[in-house]
Amino acid sequence: MRPSSELTTIGFDADDTLWQNERFFRMTERRFAAMLADHGEGEQISARLLEAERRNLAIYGFGIKGFTLSMIETAIEVTDGRVPASVISEILDAGREMLGHPIEPLPHARETVEKLAGTFRLVLITKGDLFDQERKLAGSGLGELFDAVEIVSDKTAATYARLFNRHGDGPARGMMVGNSLKSDVVPAIEAGGWGVHVPHELTWVLEHVEAPVAEPRFRQISDLSQLPALVESVKNRV
């Protein structure tokens, strides 16, 4: 029987924590800007696309499908409604290619999850399109290591409170590990849990917030290989 004060549940983000994701968005964004090179510089096109994504998050949510629709909307806007059908077709092709990209696990992902599996309840907590996230999890080969998988529309303090109560012993005995301070770390701490930041070289600008360095339950590691030692150091300090 574990002591009542012990860490029992660890949540993992998926995209850019366990496998590559943002790099495919960046590659497609550059391709999109090239399609519309006659209508603005690459930085201008990217800025207009970001505006569309920001507007559309509440409508389409996170993921490739919403990104593709935002590209189409941006193409219509920057061409004053004169975007050729061939460009729309190319945008759709780019979106389909993203939905089929191979899964590239990040360094130390498998070995770290394997070390923690069995000792802690492991929950994959990811946001985005259901079909795409399920595809990526299946392609990663990591699915069998998790006790539960939750694909959510957004990550808030209420989300973590609910999921750590559902799959663990409450947020106070839970830890969330991820590359996004905004989605993975800050709301998990707000819910009463630990938040562990694993920076990725590419993080979407809409996921940027200040690190909560004054929070006693905030930790940062350079890569997932450092997680088991970190867990050991905090597991009885809940």
How does this model look, in words?
Strands 3-2-1-4-5-6 form a six-stranded parallel beta sheet, with helices on both faces. α1 crosses α2, α1 (22-35) packs antiparallel against α4 (85-99) and α7 (157-167) packs across α8. The protein is α/β, with parallel strands linked by helices and 238 residues long. It is built from nine helices and six strands, in the order βαααααβαβαβαββα. The model has no long low-confidence stretch (mean pLDDT 94). Helices cover 47% and strands 12% of the residues. The chain has helices spanning 22-35, 42-60, 64-78, 85-99, 109-116, 130-140, 157-167, 181-190, 227-234; strands at 9-12, 121-127, 148-152, 174-178, 194-197, 218-220. It comes from Mesorhizobium australicum. Keywords: Hydrolase.
- Give the N-terminus to C-terminus distance in angstroms: 16 Å
Radius of gyration: 19 Å
Give the fraction of residues assigned to helices.
40-55%
Number of helices: 9
Determine the mean pLDDT. 94
Keywords:
238 residues, alpha/beta, HAD family hydrolase, hydrolase
Précis, in short:
The chain is α/β, with parallel strands linked by helices.
Ordered list of secondary-structure elements with their pairings:
Layout lengths: L8 E4 L9 H14 L6 H19 L3 H15 L6 H15 L9 H8 L4 E7 L2 H11 L7 E5 L4 H11 L6 E5 L2 H10 L3 E4 L20 E3 L6 H8 L4
Parallel strand pairs: 1-2, 1-4, 2-3, 4-5, 5-6
Helix pairs in contact: 1-2, 1-4, 2-3, 3-4, 7-8
